[in-house]
Amino acid sequence: MLTYEIVVIGGGPAGLAAAIEAKKNGIESILIIERDGELGGILQQCIHNGFGLHVFKEELTGPEYAEKFIHELKQMGIAYKLDTMVLDINKDKEIHAINTIDGFMTIKAGAVILAMGCRERTRGAINIPGTRPAGIYTAGTAQRFVNMEGHKVGKRVVILGSGDIGLIMARRMTLEGAKVLAVVELMPFSGGLTRNIVQCLEDYNIPLLLSHTLTEIRGKDRVEGIVIAKVDENKKIIPGTEQEFDCDTLLLSVGLIPENELSYNAGIELDPITYGPTVNEAMETSVEGIFACGNVVHVHDLVDFVTQESRRAGKNAAGYIKKEIKKESQTVHTHPEKGIRYIVPQRVRIANVGQKLDLFMRVDNVYQDVYMVVKINDKEIKRIKKKHLAPGEMESLEIQKDDLVCEEGSMISILLEKEGA
Question: Quick check: 412 and 376 in contact, CB under 8 A?
């Protein structure tokens, strides 16, 4: 049996940042397990720029951002296994994994950091009607084919869903010489960052059709066309609003799901909104000694925020090994209220909070000129004016330690109030 102080599952941006931070905090025995053939995760296929503005104060491509961490990891001598699949984790922090070199392995860890990232929703997950021709891809799959394997996936393209990957692929396909006919979005707002709407759609005159959905895929051997229609406020199709597009390719950008089969099998509590583990202020899950960070906890819009969160997980996992984390402590819970979909972390042990507590959340709609109000039980402790809020952009706020005056079982709630209410 192999033994390590900390085992990190996932060698993408979250896993790399967590492992490096744990090493910087005095942990020598660290192993990263990555199922792909290289470190870096999804960043390796994200050849567009826009990464690193917060962490490195410079604009980098995805591979450049990943390389900075990979280089640092190797310099620090942190061990990693590639092409290795984790099969199972249990509450005793025993990991079962397999690869073609070592065969089946049992690895015992003092602490585990989950950093498996997320996966794309597929056609089957959203029940699109029609035949099953070639030419239907998730946006991330198309991105890998184009950017890493050099394939041109289509000439006339429609994109369903306006998440960031879909928006970025609208621009990428255009630059490859394809004609992107439209980006079709079920909701009355885009699920992507405003900067991506501007840079990837508006700059290339690609129409964004909000409150529309796909009703039919045509073609037997290859996609020959699709039919879309408008939807009402209840997301029901409005008869007579159908539009046909002649296309040979359909890209799906219909959401990301945290990759949590391992978490579920380990008995870790999952949040019904984020589909990720519930965590406390240390990024520790409901199973003691198992931490989580990055898109496996909740889907982030910027990799810089993944890095910051993962560094916190790595530092606290090191603190757990060194017995610096106070396990028995006054605990309060966070609770999303009007306008807020979820809050991370879901639990806070007051004694482990430093000078401030960072909370992260997403709103449930587009809002203009509102206040984000923080309460402990019914007492307001903070009010922040927000000119614009959108579901595609993650929000964060700080609560000072001195404001966390509350009793065991208290509730930190966040809600939105209209200006002047």
Answer: yes
Domain total in the chain: 3
Judge contact between 11 and 41, C-beta under 8 A. yes
Contact 126, 254 (CB under 8 A): yes
Q: What is the pLDDT of residue 43?
A: 94
Task: Give me 282's structure tokens.
Answer: 């240390």
Strands (E) located in 273-355: 290-292, 331-336, 340-344, 347-349
Report whether pLDDT(184) > 80.
yes
State the DSSP H helix or E strand holding residue 173, giving kind and residue range, or none if neither.
helix 164-175
* pTM score of the predicted model: 0.93
Residue 383 contacts residue 371 (beta carbons within 8 Å)? yes
- Tokens at residue 348, please? 């806070």
Which of 342, 334, 332, 322 has the alpha carbon at shortest distance from 395?
Answer: 342
Q: Are 412 and 335 in contact (CB under 8 A)?
A: yes
User: What share of the chain in percent tops pLDDT 70?
Assistant: 100
Report the CATH number that the domain containing residue 390 is assigned in CATH.
Answer: 2.60.40
What is the average pLDDT score of the chain? Answer: 94
CATH of the domain at 197: 3.50.50.60
Note whether 239 and 272 are same-domain residues: no
Together in a domain, 116 and 129? no
Q: Tell me the C-alpha distance between 62 and 43, whole Å.
A: 4
Lowest average pLDDT, out of 48-62, 125-139, 179-193, 354-368, goes to 125-139
Q: Give the C-alpha distances (Å, rounded to integers) separating 157 from 152, 202, 335, 346.
A: 11, 17, 42, 41
Nearest to 248 by CA among 121, 166, 152: 152
> 218 is in which domain, residue-wise?
122-254
Residues 31 and 177 in one domain: no
pLDDT at 98: 98
133 and 33 inside one domain:
no
What secondary structure, in 3-state letters, does 81-117 show?
Answer: ECCCEEEEECCCCEEEEEECCCEEEEEEEEEEEECCC
Residues 5 and 49 in one domain: yes
Q: How far apart are CA 37 and CA 148, in angstroms?
A: 13
**C-alpha span between 238 and 151 (Å, rounded):** 37
Residue where a domain terminates, one of 278, 307, 325: 325
Query: Of 34-43, 128-137, 250-259, 272-281, which range is least confident?
Result: 128-137
Locate tokens 């992507």: which residue?
A: 192
Nearest in space to 291 (alpha carbons), one of 258, 268, 259, 261:
268
